[in-house]
Amino acid sequence: MMIEALIAVALVGALVTFVAPNRIAGKLAFAISLVPVVLSLWLFTAFDGSGNALLEGSLAFESQYEWIQLGEYSISWFVGLDGISLPLVVLTTILTSAAIMSSWTPIDDRESQFYGLVLFIEANLIGVFAALDFFLWFIFWEAVLIPMYLLIGIWGGPRRKYAAIKFFVYTNVASLVMFGAFIALVFGLGDSVTSFALPEIATAMLNGGPDGFLGLEGTTLTSVVFIAMFLGFAVKVPVVPFHTWLPDAHVEAPTPASVLLAGVLLKMGTYALLRFNFTMFPGQVETYAVPIAAIAVISVIYGAMLALAQTDLKRIVAYSSVSSMGYVILGLIAYTQFGVGGATFQMVSHGFISGLMFMAVGVIYNATHTRLVTDMSGMADRMPIAVGILIAGAFGYMGLPLMSGFYGEFTIFFGAFQADFAYAPLFTSLAMFGIVIVAGYLLFALQRTVFGPYELETDYEVGRAPLHDIVPMFVLLGIIILLGVAPDLIFEMITDAVDPILSGGEQ
Amino acid sequence: MAVFQLPEWMALAPALIMAVTALALFVFDSISPRSTNRSLLAGTAAAGSLASLAVAVWFSTAGVGTPTIDGGLGEIEPIHGLVVDQLALYFMIVVAIVTALVAVASYDYLVDHAYQAEYYSLVMLAATGMSMMAAANSLVTIFIALELASLPSYALVAILKDNRGSVEAGLKYFLIGALSSAIFVYGISLVYGATGHLYLADIAAVIEAGGADGYGSLLGLGILMLIGGFAYKTASAPFHFWAPDAYEGAPAPISAFLSSASKAAGFVIAFRVFTEAFPVAATQELIGLDWTIAFVILAIVTMTIGNFAAATQNNVKRMLAYSSIGHAGYALIGLAALSADGGELVMGAAMMHLLVYGFMNTGAFLFVALAEHWDVGRTFEDYNGLSAQAPVACAALVVFMFSLAGVPPFAGFWSKYFLFTGAISIGSTAMLAVAAALVVNSALSLYYYSRLVKAVLIEDPLADRGALDQPTGLYAAIIVAAVMTVALLAGFGPIAEAATDAAAAALA
Prior knowledge:
Chain A is mainly alpha-helical. Chain A contains 21 helices and six strands. Chain A has helices at residues 2-19, 22-46, 85-102, 111-130, 134-143, 145-155, 160-189, 198-206, 218-236, 245-252, 255-280, 282-287, 289-308, 313-334, 337-368, 379-382, 384-398, 404-417, 424-449, 467-485, 488-502, and strands at residues 60-70, 73-81, 212-213, 216-217, 376-377, 455-456. In chain A, the strands form three sheets. Chain A has a two-stranded antiparallel ribbon. A two-stranded antiparallel ribbon of chain A has the order 3-4. Chain B has a domain at 292-508. Chain B is 75% helix and 1% strand. Chain B has 20 helices and two strands. Chain B has helices at 13-31, 38-62, 86-109, 116-135, 139-157, 164-195, 200-209, 216-233, 242-249, 252-277, 280-287, 291-311, 316-336, 343-374, 386-389, 391-405, 411-426, 429-457, 472-490, 492-507; strands at 76-79, 82-84. In chain B, helix 2 (38-62) packs parallel to helix 4 and helix 14 (343-374) runs antiparallel to helix 19 (472-490). The radius of gyration of chain B is 22 Å and the shape is globular. The two termini of chain B are 25 Å apart. The A-B interface holds A 18-19, 66-71, 110, 112-113, 124, 138-143, 145-146, 150, 153-154, 160-161, 164-165, 168, 172-173, 176, 180, 183, 187, 214 and B 342, 345, 348, 387-388, 391-392, 395, 398, 402, 407-409, 413-414, 418, 421-422, 424-425, 427, 432, 439, 443, 446, 450, 454, 457-459, 489-490, 492-493, 496-497, 500.
């Protein structure tokens, strides 16, 4: 019942905040959001699961109730956590609280609706990571879209309408493709499944796969579904060439929406890839390893090059997310313990780091009302603490040892080097070159904005950032360092859940 | 439970309660013709429809219409030509829900309006007719119930006597209604001529026994004309073109009433006539054509026309009217699938869709009623930025729009999904074409539904409006509809079960 409690607190909190007066909405939402943080940390300490949720592992906090029985298939409320989903749930709750606190300064219009939507997103994100029934999962998955569309559309920047609709159309079309493909797969599996529970479907897939559907042979159907689902999730991740919605959405989104978008929403894509494509289709993973690895490497390099060309701080961070997600895909396709485990670790790590970066950029924007690198220099002079954190976050991004980014990327490279597919070492070395570009554009941007003599093109008085902007950033920085120093806090449970995937369901 | 130690005619109680309420309102009107006691009038109508709803739910759960061998009470046929079974009760529930919502919402809509008692009694009379349509199982009772539902509706559409649009809409609605009634009756006479019966079960018996051999073309023509009558009542192609004008001109609560309840009632007679009177195989042998083909074509054409036309509208009410045509197309899938194995799942899904539609579409039209009450204007642009002033109502509108589009996490997602999978799992070429049309149209519909969401939430208002009040009745009805649209997502199991059971029983 703990997961239900977690979701219920966020949902009820969203409703309460929605009708609360604007004046207190921010504080109220923050107070409410602390409950899921505490609950999820408690779940973290009380975690007693082992193995993979889809592959006969023992689930923590499992609960299952029949929901709808129609025809041959039953749909149920089925939630539970394993070593892959639990860290992501904790990431969600902490990042939501941080995002809420960081919106106290920039959000000054229709606050109660804003914070209500943020809490509503949190509830659904937790649901996405905890759901183990396809329909339940899909409902949460889609339910994230609507509030995020509104957050960007209502509180965003000048081109908010365009960015919001682009985000919505891209991700919704992708969801439709994925949904249709998965339904075809389940129908193709025929009598071997009687419900939409993911573990049951995963087992059926590993025990022979579909017989065929709509005139497609079983093997063809499997490949078609694999590709369709990969494309559907690829938009969400996003990988090149489906990434163009991301910079628009990020640049126009208000800071807290960017934090959640980069921190958690992108992980929905990689999480789903891991849960569906990389767990249920081991054969196809092997077949399509080279093209997917190529996509990953292109995302890494091209994303970083795009970031290099930007002058808007937020766009730089946004494009670097494309690059970082490329590492995750590379780790997944490596299909080794370190590769997949590292990819999962990187999801969590990148969530905290990119969240921190967006918050730091947001704090600078709150004070200067510009994000253009060319508009400012010497910011360290006026807001030393905020800028200090920005620099720390940037080093986390570059993979400084003893910060979580290092461990994530290192394990991914380590795992990808050992991978079985053709030219794996070559792909890995190419991807490693991305690190250099990351360091290049981040240092370049920092050098121009924070160092040197103080100058600002816009007409604003810049003072120190308020305490409530600094505190959440410090918390995130603390977690980033903690995970860098003691990665086994989560890496152990991740590898425990990843191993069954690699052994094809054997314990 | 001892439901039917009650006399048998009490089985019709859901419809009778509506009728008694209508009469009570008439009596009140004759005592105090110019009364504007809105609370009393709206309260009576709402209480009547809620009582009808409660009784229908009670009968349904107590097992009326479920086979006696399972401990149910079996179908009850108090009068030859009216049957109370699960199918009838299911649709009586839909009608009662919509009527209750409309009655509550009209409380505010009719401020400063003359003829209030007439308004409510006409609504209740039309609801009586719709409930009777759910129960009718003879072509005569079907026609009488149909007219009982239609005649008050004509008057209701035109009830804003001083409003040109309303009167014009009433006239259009009436003329096309009269035409389609004529066609329908002609169809009945042809079917009677071919089979010698009006009672649905007898028609089926004659067809199956070969008693109508040699009259195949006559029967075929009769069936085609009956389909024309249904198409009118459900606002499906080719008799859909009255809908945008009538819904636009009518008072918005009446548009809600007609587009939700009247449509559902039209579908129940279509379901009943085509499952009971014209067994697919035997009829096909006789007339040389599978009548489900007609519904396949109608479904695809109707949903496509409705959605494409809706996408081009600038007037919100017209957009909803066309979207209502599109949804008639979705529900027609239930009839298109009847010839195949698994047809009861698709018909059940269509029934689920009509129930969910009863909440989400009624709610959407009631939001338009609210906008008319505020006098903000008619186009999308006029609705710009409403959410800053009325966040709760606009949140409800978001629920209705995304639910109509079939996006999770709202109940509209389930019914559309079940229609889709039902059609896919039958797997015939025709049903795959229908399923493909459903997907394409749903994707398109998201465009114009989200356009309204974008207008109220994201766009800035064109002009300053004064403060907007919060009329109690309209707000209550909208919030109930929104809450139910969300709650049905979680509580969809019982509805899915009731609908598929009723469909299976009707097909058995």
